[in-house]
Design a protein that fits this description.
- InterPro entries: Znf_CCHC (IPR001878).
- This is XP_034969502.1LOW QUALITY PROTEIN: uncharacterized protein K02A2.6-like.
- The protein is built from twelve helices and two strands, in the order αααααααααααββα.
- By secondary structure, it is mainly alpha-helical.
- Among the domains are: 17-82, no CATH class; 88-152 and 161-170, no CATH class.
- Strand 1 and strand 2 (280-288) form a beta hairpin.
Amino acid sequence: MASLMPLLPFAPASESWDSYLTRFDCYVQANELTEVSGEHKRGLFLCLCGPEVFETARALVAPLAVQAALWDTIQEKLRNHYAPKPSKIAARHAFYHQNQAEGESINNYTATLRQAAMHCELRDLDDALMDRIVCGVRDIRLQRRLLAKPDFTLQKATEAAAASETQKIRKASSPRLARKPVPVHHKEASRDEASSSEDDDVHQTKRERGEFQQKSKDQSECAGCEGNHSRAKCRFRDAICRKCSRRGHIAKVCRSAPSDTHTPTDSQVQVFTSVRQGKLFRSHQLPLPVWNHNWPNRLAYAMQAERRCAH
């Protein structure tokens, strides 16, 4: 059998040490060298591993010469150097915090979980993978459906997740339903009808706007008293305004300009009253507005002021 191409050297930046050793075993198997001795495999490995790994192997087995060390010893020392066994607790912590990344398919997520569980020493790997898939998927609706099921297996969980993923992809890629086109001859025949329909819509909008404005006007404050009722229901419709002496509103809402006869000035009528309190007499000075025909007479007002001072 013809010899295959040489095995590429180990590249720590692109692959793990366990992966490289697996490739080396496959290379040995492909070249039908599985039955050869350990010394033969050691020599083949040291020739193919590259200068970096070769120097590392020499340093790890020193002072013993690398070509004299046992093949199993070289494998163990290189594995402890490039891929030291992690802590079981640390590995499980990383496993149980491994969530599905954005854009990651369910199959890739399952493979990532399996790789993270390699050093966890889990008793039931399938059960742990099922729990992690249910808790780590990004689709919240899928997670709720899985949690609602009383009993399911890892296979059922992955199948449900794959089906949901396929449905999402199909829904995103399917074109939207186009609107049914109207025939051209129908458009030409109904052009006048469409114009008439537009006019009807305009008139309908104007009518609705007028009804709304009328309704708002009816529900506004009364112009006669600022009450929350219509003008027709106002009880001050026949009232006489004390400010302008006109009928139909009260002074609170009067819009007439105040006249000089209704506005108090600095010249005020003063009324002096005396109230006996024991042996003392106290005088009170009360300002009065300018009198007009709408105010009570002076005598009545003076008597009212005297009664207030007595109290």
